[in-house]
Design a protein that fits this description.
This is ATP-binding protein. By secondary structure, the protein is of the alpha/beta class. It has 3 domains: about 5-130, no CATH class; about 145-325, Rossmann fold, CATH 3.40.50.300; about 330-385. It has helices spanning about 5-10, 25-35, 40-45, 50-60, 65-70, 80-95, 120-130, 130-135, 140, 170-185, 205-215, 230-240, 260-270, 305-320, 330-345, 350-365, 370-385; strands at about 145-150, 150-155, 195, 220-225, 245-250, 280-285, 320-325. It has a 7-stranded mixed sheet. α15 crosses α16. The longest helix has 19 residues, at about 80-95. The radius of gyration is 27 Å and the shape is globular.
Amino acid sequence: MDLKQFQMELETLTLFHRILEDEIVDLLIQTIDDSTYYCRLCSKIYDQGANLSDYIYKMVMNDENIYVLNKAKNKTIVPSIENSLKRELKILQKLCDLKSKEVHIQSDIEYPEWENTSYSLEKDYYQRIEELPKKGYGIFAKYFVFGIDEQGLYPIRHPDTQSLKEMTGYQQQRNVLIKNTLALLQGMKANNALLYGDAGTGKSSTIKAIVNEYHTEGLRLIEVKKKQIAQLPSIIEMLADNPLKFIIFIDDLSFSSNDDDYIALKNILEGSTTSNKMNVVIYATSNRRHFMKETFSDREGDEMHRNDTIQETMSLAARFGLTITFQKPGSNLYMEIVKQYAKEYELNLDEHELKIKAEAFAIRNNGRSARTAKQFVEYEKINQSILD
């Protein structure tokens, strides 16, 4: 390969111009001019798994460029951009296939080398474009759970691994939310949902488990704190043309009186601050049916004032299309959950002893709940392991 010619070809990348800003690609270009950079280049490639082809392939497939963005919006691609894509993929194929021995200087000294894998970039790239509704692009192709900070969205690299198959009890409640989520994934109008009920009953875990189950089908989760609710209209607008489907998750939602975030969320649920989007739903959890933290001062005033306050709090809950109730489990459901966790953790206790210890643990630890059941089994498993 004529490396100087190849260097000039790389510098013509337009759609994929961001790849030229990558540290490894930049080092490779420098190495063509000065071979003393070669070992530093190898070191950086080794940091990424020692395979240059894999590294370049992932960058190309996840690159967020104008071609991808237009395809995601179902816009017509003009011929000049289509032709540029094909040309640039051929250049990037050369980069993907580049062997160590083609770059380092020939001498009696033994040089480090990197690995290569055979890929068909053009074929795989067009296939990836067809799969945008499931695999996404850019940061949404790499991660499926996100948070919000001052700069906007950021990925949560190690999300909760809760799975649906590990969850016991509340199957009816979960099925309602699963059906609603599947409607979202199928492009139908899905409802915003409020999961209301006692602490520890699995409201948040249900939402996270659903995302873990269906993220390969194009589902993404964005976790929003209550104080960030005012940012939701801009976030929803940003996601409007994205082919993926998004759950905006607000955990443990509650408000104080005269809380501006209360009005902001009400407006969002009404659709007055942003048009209804078919690819976004809001799932919220709350221990309070009508969200408000009541104080003695809230109870003061005449009967009309109190009635107005009650009606106002009820109106927000009513704006969720679905309200799913998770109540504290009774004795039978609690023991069903305990038994499932005991089986999962391979806890060796006979059923009678398991029941006595589980009930005693619940009395000492905030009563029966799915969370208490799991904590009990984990506690007993640790004790059993120590004794063994």
